[in-house]
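## retry 2 of 3
previous attempt timed out at serialization; input unchanged, resubmitting
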Amino acid sequence: MTLKIIGAGFGRTGTYSLKSALETLGFGPCHHMSEVIGDPNQIGLWSDVVAGKPDYERIFADFGSAVDFPVSAYWQEVLAATPDARIILSHRDPEDWYASFSQTILPLIMDKSAWPDHLVQWLELIEKVIIGKALGGRTDRNGILAAYRENEKAAMAQAKTGRGLVFRASDGWGPLCAFLDVDIPDMPYPKTNPRADFFAAVKSSSESAKSAVS
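## retry succeeded, writing output
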């Protein structure tokens, strides 16, 4: 397994921008939830992870880095399987993160009546990954924020050892490139997937997944 970077930050902490940045810096391809939604093989492999039968070698066989859910729910287990990898915690103020999460990912999972048939398998998976694992079954505001802070505390402990980086998208290239010991690119740091575009991105991925199973 060639995985070098593991993202510990939950979705809605600038993970898609971080994915783009890592690929620009030569640490790609970067695994992200967008890699899972339209790939039945990835859905199956992550379902095995949820069931306690992980095969991280197969999941990350073609990837140099991984951020966002599902990996951020299992980053400690993936780190144990790839002891030479380094951790990046994409950080966002908890209250600001919750405001975004509660208007995007959370309602997508909780409103099962709106689940399209061709995405049921994926949505069942992310419910288990996000609600079951990352949030420990908590769906109330205080419980979700507590889970978020617990995850950040664990990842920040890695940063204190020098093995991890606490990174905010607003920090730009500097800290990220210093941590990875690479040159700063001659371009702005990526800015992608703002809250307003979230459902458009899901719809686009949904259409790709629908085509794949048609």
